[in-house]
Amino acid sequence: MLTRLLKASVFTSLAFFSLNAGGFDAQAQKDKKELVKYFEAKFQNPYENKNRFFPYSTDEELKDGYAKGLKHMDFGIGSYSYAKDAKQQYEAIKEFPPYEDKIEEGEELYTKKFANGKSLKTCFPNPAIVGEYPYFDTKTQEVISLTTAINKCLEANNEKKWNTKKGQMAKFQAFLAYSTAEAEKNMDIKIPTKKAQEAYERGKEYYYTQRGYLKLSCATCHIQGAGQRVRNEKLSPLLGQITHFPVYRLKWGSLGTLERRMSGCIKDQGQVPPKDDSKKMHELLYFMAYMSNGMPIDGPDVRK
Amino acid sequence: MNRLVNISLVSITAIAFSACASSSANLSSVKGIDVEKVCSVQNNGIENVIQTAEKYNEIAKRNELEFRRLGVNNSDLIISVKEAIKTGANEVNPKDFKSKASKTKLPVEFAAHRACKFAISALTQANEAKTTWRLAVPGDGYEY
């Protein structure tokens, strides 16, 4: 009788704790599900959905310029999933990717010895980790991005921090992204505690808040505006937006980190962007990364 | 000894005042402000307008909401207007966020008006967004 009672109590406690542990990302899961539903509806048939989603596009471009019937995972390549012309150009560039040598340089940085004899490999013994960043550090109660984690490693070993936007940082991240993609890993962001949930919610609010003198939110372009044409380019979707970083951007003529791209976007809204290692930037990336959960890591990549 | 007491009293008063000022210097301090009225150079004079710009831009900076247009942070625009007032220049050429000369060249009165409007709008927008941001969330306020 006593054993039965004990078993029942243990079972109840385990169920209670596991339910609670799962509960912290309940809202985030709902948000992601709704986002996928929205994008699948939007790109089911852009021509037929003109009045609903593309009121400013021409019939001709909606008929001929967009792919149809897109599903969740198709959005992993961003706007190239629906922009037919851009996809052709993208595939042509990918035949001779301009970032290949950067992956090799990144690999050299991985094993290059610090003055104390250690290396980045000491901090990141497994390089296939890009899908796990940003993560919520339950010890420090804050979100840590990959860029911040790398700089923390350098600092902890008395090395100088790297530029967070390009150069060695981007090259090393290219190696990590490549290793993660080779290991066929997906974006896998966790929301383990109430504090992490709050961080996610703040990141989400940042994403949807109109800011800057142009009063644009990230969502204006990458949710409501995703797929719409600005000059000759179609805006990318939030889904899968950060699975391919770092990117070699033709506009930059070099490889850049996710933070470099984010700062550019926020600046385009007409506001001073948050610092790359700030709480705001970390939490914004945390939200965006969660929205791509389950999607394959395919960085580094090329973008216009 | 009396001098020491006086200095202490002055310091305490200054700290108390600055603490009060900073606690009231929050986002909601712009509620009900008529931007065009307070930022009108004609009605208030350029010195008052740029003082208003400076006051609210500080709050915007503290809340990471400061505006930047064509590489020029609003605080740099304010600095350029203040310098123009000192030198009597009719035009401003503010520095960009990298402290290099920008391509922005504006008549000084227009620049003062813009700096003031940008400083207040950054805060007004943030206040509004607290209740409107969910309207853009699929599955929440956004219907399609």
Automatic annotation (TrEMBL), chain A:
* Keyword check for Secreted: no
Query: What's the domain of life for this entry?
Result: Bacteria
Q: Which cofactor does it need?
A: heme
Which positions does UniProt annotate for heme c 1 binding?
Answer: C123, C153
Reaction catalysed by this chain?
L-cysteinyl-[SoxY protein] + thiosulfate + 2 Fe(III)-[cytochrome c] = S-sulfosulfanyl-L-cysteinyl-[SoxY protein] + 2 Fe(II)-[cytochrome c] + 2 H(+); S-sulfanyl-L-cysteinyl-[SoxY protein] + thiosulfate + 2 Fe(III)-[cytochrome c] = S-(2-sulfodisulfanyl)-L-cysteinyl-[SoxY protein] + 2 Fe(II)-[cytochrome c] + 2 H(+)
Family recorded in the similarity comment: Belongs to the SoxA family.
From the Swiss-Prot or TrEMBL record, give the protein name. SoxAX cytochrome complex subunit A
Instruction: Please name the source species.
Output: Malaciobacter halophilus
Q: What lineage does UniProt assign to this protein's organism?
A: Bacteria, Pseudomonadati, Campylobacterota, Epsilonproteobacteria, Campylobacterales
UniProtKB/TrEMBL annotation, chain B:
**Where does the secretion signal sit in this chain?**
1-21
This one is known as: Lipoprotein
Q: Which domain of life is it from?
A: Bacteria
Q: Which organism is it from?
A: Malaciobacter halophilus
User: What keywords were assigned to this record?
Assistant: Signal
Q: Does the keyword Signal apply?
A: yes
